[in-house]
Design goal:
Number of domains: 2
Number of strands: 9
CATH topology of the largest domain: Rossmann fold
Helix content: 40-55%
Largest sheet: 7 strands, mixed
Radius of gyration: 22 Å
CATH architecture of the largest domain: 3-Layer(aba) Sandwich
Shape: elongated
Order of helices and strands: HEHEHEHEHEHEHHEEEHHHH
Bound molecules: S-adenosylmethionine
CATH superfamily of the largest domain: Vaccinia Virus protein VP39
Length: 298
């Protein structure tokens, strides 16, 4: 087995040996602390029962420790040069497979089907920060049936994912995450844990995915159009933000729906819980459908 890589000396040696430079455009900040690596794997609760998908293995620092705990690890890395390195650093870790691909273009459900043995599939990663939100949304919205997603993200992103209504950090990301999963911050991680050192602090965000959404809604797409409209113009009241953005719905109709839900007409989106957004969305959906019907009858 190759030595563990979670220290600055090992990372430098590998980069020199393969004549590789850190690629900023791929968000490459490699972990250099063994305790952080161990804590991520612990936080994700990885056991021999689990198949793991890792996003962006880099030189394989986290991959090695995941492989020591999991049944299998499938790691998706975009950088061809690093895939060559992984051929060496994952030598002897026979339960690992590396796929050279952009995670945003990867068929996740297909990947899980290929494993196909019914074990829980957990995602674990130290994410590239330049595409954190698209990756998170792809993982959350995938129908791959992930049990959990445990990822290193910028501290502010972790706080936004866990934020409650009425707080500054609460927004579209909070509602999107909380529609799919129960979030918690598993670990705070200082910038000194990475090489090169990023300009921001980080945190490990642990998401346990729901089998069923915690709120019922007739039309999730409509719900998220409403939510995006509400936060797109954060300083505006909900009636002004949503009233002008959703086609076919007048400001008056939105205002009436807000009042009918027992909310103040001047309420802002940031004060509404997921449950309240879902109820309002269903009411607006019904009004929009009624408007559609009566305009097509004329
Ligand atoms: N896991 C390693 C570690 O913790 O030391 C590296 C983490 S580094 C923050 C992010 C990794 O994601 C890099 O290896 C980078 O090349 C890779 N990456 C960036 N964009 C990617 C994409 N679209 N698809 C797959 N991997 C990507």
């Amino acid at each position: 087995m190759y030595e563990h890589l979670s220290n600055p000396g090992a990372v430098r040696r590998i980069l020199d040996q393969y004549d590789i430079r850190f690629r900023k455009r791929f968000g490459q900040n490699f972990l250099i602390r063994e305790d952080v690596v161990e804590n991520i794997v612990d936080g994700a609760g990885i056991t021999q029962r689990d198949d793991v998908i890792e996003v962006g293995p880099g030189i394989g620092t986290l991959t090695q420790v995941l492989a020591e705990h999991a049944h299998s690890v499938t790691a998706v890395e975009i950088d061809r040069d690093l895939v060559k390195v992984l051929g060496e650093t994952l030598r002897g870790y026979d339960n690992t497979e590396v796929i050279c691909q952009d995670i945003l273009k990867t068929d996740l459900a297909g990947l899980v089907r290929e494993k196909g043995e019914g074990r829980p599939v957990k995602v674990v990663a130290n994410l590239p920060y330049y595409i954190t939100t698209p990756i998170l949304m792809k993982l959350l919205e995938s129908d791959a049936g992930f049990e959990s997603i445990t990822v290193m993200v910028q501290k502010e992103v972790a706080e936004r994912a866990c934020a409650m209504p009425g707080t500054k950090a609460f927004g579209v990301l909070s509602l999107a995450v909380q529609y799919h999963a129960a979030p918690r911050i598993a670990l705070q991680v200082p910038a000194s844990s990475f090489m090169p050192r990023p300009n921001v602090d980080s945190a490990v965000l642990d998401l346990k995915l729901y089998r069923e959404a915690p709120v019922r809604t007739q039309d999730p797409d409509f719900l998220f159009r409403l939510i995006k409209a509400a936060f797109g113009q954060r300083r505006k009241t909900l009636v002004n933000a949503a009233g002008s953005v959703i086609p076919g719905l007048s400001k008056e109709a939105v205002g009436e729906a807000i009042t009918a839900e027992g909310l103040p007409l001047q309420v802002r989106g940031e004060a509404l819980s997921l449950e309240e957004f879902a109820r309002l969305s269903d009411r607006l959906c019904r009004i929009a459908a009624k408007n559609d019907r009566s305009s097509s009858e004329q």
